[in-house]
Design a protein that fits this description.
The chain has about 80 residues and is an all-alpha fold. It contains two helices and no strands. Keywords: Membrane, Transmembrane, Transmembrane helix.
């Protein structure tokens, strides 16, 4: 049996992971829940969200340290 070549730009013959995410439409899902699913926990947005959380936590830690140990920073 002769082997036939695939046409140009053909997809692979095996099933691979889907490249596009299908939206889940749940009529009972609240808008807050949909926001959390699409914007916070989405895998493609997680690195940006982690960097935002890191920046906010470093800022909050700096405020905490300055308010707690601020007296020690002033030379006597």
């Amino acid at each position: 049996m002769a082997r036939r070549a695939a046409p140009p730009n053909a997809s692979p013959a095996f099933l691979s992971a889907p490249t596009t995410r299908r939206a889940i439409h749940d009529p009972n899902e609240s808008s807050f829940s949909r926001f959390m699913r699409e914007q916070i926990w989405a895998p493609e947005k997680l690195p940006g969200n982690i960097s935002i959380i890191t920046g906010v936590s470093v800022f909050a830690g700096g405020v905490f340290v300055a308010r707690t140990f601020g007296e020690l920073f002033i030379p006597a």
